[in-house]
Structures are given as structure tokens and as C-alpha cells.
Amino acid sequence: MLGELSPTQIEQVLFSEVVARLGCAEAGRPYVVPVTYAYDGRYVYGHSAEGEKIRVMRRNPTVCLEVERVEDLANWQSVIAWGTFEELHGDAAIRASRFLEHRLNPFTTARSAPLEVELTEAGRPPLGAPSGRPIVVYRIRLTEKSGRYERAVTIPLTPAVEPTPRHVPEALAAASVSTGPHGIRLGPPG
Q1: Which residue(s) pair with 34 in the sheet?
Q2: Position 170 in a domain
Q3: Which of 51, 95, 147, 178 could serve as 5's disulfide partner, Cβ 3.0–4.6 Å?
Q4: CA separation (Å) from 182 to 177, 178, 185, 188?
Q5: Spatial contact of 93 and 137, defined as CB atoms under 8 Å apart
Q6: The CATH number of the domain where 58 resides is what?
Q7: What contacts 24+ positions apart, CB below 8 Å, involve 129-134?
Q8: Quick check: is 52 in a domain?
Q9: How far apart are CA 15 and CA 107, in angstroms?
Q10: Cβ neighbours around 142 below 10 Å, total
């Protein structure tokens, strides 16, 4: 069964997940990448090393996010949200970094380092990404949201019916009896 998520269900998906697909575009060319995020009910917060995604969003701040919760291919929820990219600096970047750290660190593993975004006095993250590029802290002000879902419908099976003479067509019930290759009697019981 397919359907639309209610506003409350949309919020539940956005709050419960931490990975989204971020879509942005420049000169008619779409660019979609997975991102980790934290949601506060109004904004989606993220961080990234300066690169293609940040350059595109600076030039065209209109973006789209897709977030999903998938149990299996017949049981899922998906949210699409549109909004505007805003690069953060100073106290706003520090608060966003702490919020991201608090939300994402429970999902880190022994193999991944905890998120620790420190900012310079100017409110810009220092060089620190593995690439040596500056870290950019940003938020997306969500302006529109929609959601869809699929839920498997269980169809009860009809219990098997043992054929009895009343279920067998009259022609079969009256069929002649023959003997199979091993002398086994074939046909209706006699």
C-alpha cells in the first residue's frame, strides 16, 4: 500500500535519521551527494570540507534533501524537503557544530573518529578535514516538505481444501479406473 506521510510522520523521519541525499544545481547541472545532518525542527545542520558541494550551494542556495527510513523494499518512508543553504560563522557556527557533535557522535564506530569541529576566533573552522581544506558549517532553512511511504499488505492465505467427490467435477468422478505401471490403481476410489 502506497500513501502520503502526515506532517507529524514527516517530522518523525527527519528527526530519527542522520543521513540524507543533498541535491543542489548550477547552470542546469544537478549534483546529489550523501550528507550527515542534524535536524532541530526548522533547520537541517551540516558540515563539509570546502569543495564542489559548498561552491555550488554558495552560487545557488536553493537545495533539496531526501531522507529515507527503509525496513525492506516493501516497507519504507521517504521525505523530500526543499530549502535554502546558509553558511554559518561565529557563535552560530559554534552552536551548530555542538549540535551536530551531540547528534552524530552516538552513530560513530570504533573505526570512525568522533565529530569534533573547533572554530577559530573568527568563527571559521580551521583546516582540519583530511584533505586539508577548511570545514564549512551550514544550515538549510526548510521551506517545504512532503513524504511518501509503502507498507506491505499481508494477504491471508485461503486454507487448502481437500478434494472430495462434491469438489470434483462429475466427469472426473465417473472416469474409468486404470492401472498404472506398478499395478497401482488410478482413478476414483472403488
Answers
A1: 21
A2: no
A3: 147
A4: 14, 11, 9, 17
A5: yes
A6: 2.30.110.10
A7: 129/49, 129/50, 130/49, 131/49, 131/51, 133/49, 133/50, 133/51, 134/49, 134/50
A8: yes
A9: 14
A10: 18
CA distance 94 to 47: 11
| Whole-structure pTM value | 0.71
Exposed/middle/buried for residue 84 (C-beta within 10 Å: 0-12, 13-18, 19+): middle
Residue 37 near residue 45, CB atoms below 8 Å:
yes
Domain count, the chain: 1
Alpha carbon of 44 to those of 7, 47, 48, 112, 155: distances in Å?
16, 10, 13, 22, 39
CA dist., res. 74 & res. 59, Å (int): 39
Which H or E run contains 94? helix 90-104
Q: Is residue 174 part of a domain?
A: no
Closest-CA residue to 98 (of 116, 113, 123) = 116
What domain range is 99 assigned to? 2-150
For residue 156, the one-letter residue type is P
> How would you write the pLDDT of the chain (190 residues) with one tens digit per residue?
999 999 999 999 999 999 999 999 999 999 999 999 999 999 999 999 999 999 999 999 999 999 999 999 999 999 999 999 999 999 999 999 999 999 988 887 655 554 555 555 444 444 455 566 788 999 999 999 999 999 998 777 766 655 555 555 555 455 555 555 555 555 555 5
